[in-house]
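Lab notebook page, bench 4
Experiment: in silico fold of construct C2
Operator: M.H.
Input chain length: 244 residues
Purpose: comparison with the prior construct
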Amino acid sequence: MNWFLNFAKSSIGAKFVMAITGFMMIGFVVAHMAGNLQIFAGQEVAEHTETGLIAAREALNAYGFKLQNDLKPLVWVLRLGLLGAFLGHMAGAYRVVTLNQKARPRGYVVTRHQASTSMSRYMAWTGVVILVFVLVHLAHFTLGVLSHDTYALTDPEGRHDVYNMVVLGFQNKAYAGFYIFAQALLGLHLGHGASSWLQTLGIFHKKYNPLIRSLGGVVGTIIFLGNISIPLAVLLGIVKASGV
C-alpha cells in the first residue's frame, strides 16, 4: 500500500490516478445520460398529446423505481465507487497543481504558452465549476433540498415521479441555463481530459495520434449534446409535464 501512496504522490502517479478516475467518471456520465434520455420515450406518440406524455412518464419513472428498489444495493456500490473516484480525481489534480507550482516557485517575467492549450490551462477552473454544479444538481434532483414540492411528487403507481420532477425543474429558466452552461464546461473538460488521460496511460502512437486526440472531442460533444437536449426540449415545450 505504501508503494502506491508514494507513486500517487509523484507527478506521473497523480496523473495516472486522474486518468483512471477520469475514465470511471466518464463511464458514469454516459450511463447517467442514457438513462435520463428515456424522458423522450413515447414523446412522438400522438403528437405529444397526453398519451405520449404518459408513455414517457412511465418509461422514466419505471427506470427510476428500478434503480431505487430492485438495484438499490448495486446503486449504492456504484455511488460509493463514484465518490471515491471523484475524491481521487480531485486529490490527483491538487497534487499535480502543487507539484507544478513547486517546480517553478517564481512567476515568469513574460508568460509564454507554447505547448499548452487554453483548455489545459483552465482545466482546474472548469473542474471547480463542475464541482459546484454536481453539488447543486444533487441537492436539486437527488436529495430534494432545493425542490421540496416537485421532489415529493408521485405518479398513479405510487412511485417517485422522476419525469415531472425533471420537467418542472427545467422549466425554471435560471436553473436550466446554469445546467446548460455547466454541461458545456463538462463537455470541454472531459473532451480535453480524455485525450490527455490516454497519453498518460501510454495509449498514444505516432500513427494514430490525430485520431486519439479527436476522440476526446467527440466524447465531450456527445455528452454535451445529449445532456442539454433535455432542458432545451423542456424550454421549447417539446417535453411537457404530465398529470400535474
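Observations: The chain is about 75% helix and 0% strand. The longest helix spans residues 72-103.
Next step: discuss at group meeting.
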